[in-house]
Structure to design on (205 residues):
């Protein structure tokens, strides 16, 4: 069984959002076209409380983009984004959400970030994604969304570790590229771990 896994196609990661990914809106028509090729679609949402400690606003004297130690883990500080129940946390209006069978919420613990759709960044808590996919008999994942060098990378690597066959739909993803070259490095890292890099046109019905 295969499934399409959409990562964080939320307003705050799109142009005009508080943590906008360049060209993030350009993946939405591609994703919408892919939806028709899958019987099972699951999506993740960043779902942060207002006081989330990954936000630079929670650390006096620190700026967006700085890295700190947060409870023993390295943490890049981000703008406030995807705050629970905010407009920024909603899926894009252009995304055909009726095709989504299930939504996984991540990053709701204020003390730890959660890039991966499967676990928080310390792997202390699972999001429920793996259990849901297992219950559906899924063995193969096609991944698309935002952003290539963070949430997509960590989700794809965890999926490989959990035993899924993973295909990344490269043209249906965009990255932050906080440091130039981050996106290419992420693609190479995923490929080295067994993720197959494909284009949306390669997906069979």
């Amino acid at each position: 069984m295969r499934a399409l896994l959409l990562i964080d196609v939320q307003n705050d990661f799109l142009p005009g959002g508080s943590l906008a990914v360049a060209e993030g809106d350009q993946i939405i028509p591609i994703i919408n076209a892919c939806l028709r090729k899958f019987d099972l679609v699951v999506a993740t949402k960043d779902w942060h409380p207002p006081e989330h400690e990954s936000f630079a606003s929670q650390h006096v004297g620190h700026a967006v983009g700085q890295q700190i130690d947060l409870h023993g883990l390295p943490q890049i500080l981000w703008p406030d984004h995807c705050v629970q129940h905010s407009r920024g946390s909603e899926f894009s209006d252009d995304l055909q959400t009726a095709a989504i069978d299930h939504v996984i919420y991540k990053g709701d613990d204020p003390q730890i970030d959660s890039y991966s759709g499967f676990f928080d960044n310390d792997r202390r808590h699972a999001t429920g994604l793996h259990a849901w996919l297992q219950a559906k008999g899924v063995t193969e994942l096609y991944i698309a969304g935002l952003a290539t060098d963070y949430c997509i990378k960590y989700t794809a690597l965890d999926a490989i570790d959990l035993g899924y066959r993973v295909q990344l739909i490269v043209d249906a993803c965009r990255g932050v590229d906080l440091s130039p070259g981050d996106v290419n490095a992420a693609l190479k890292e995923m490929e080295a771990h067994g993720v197959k890099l494909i284009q949306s046109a390669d997906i069979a019905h």
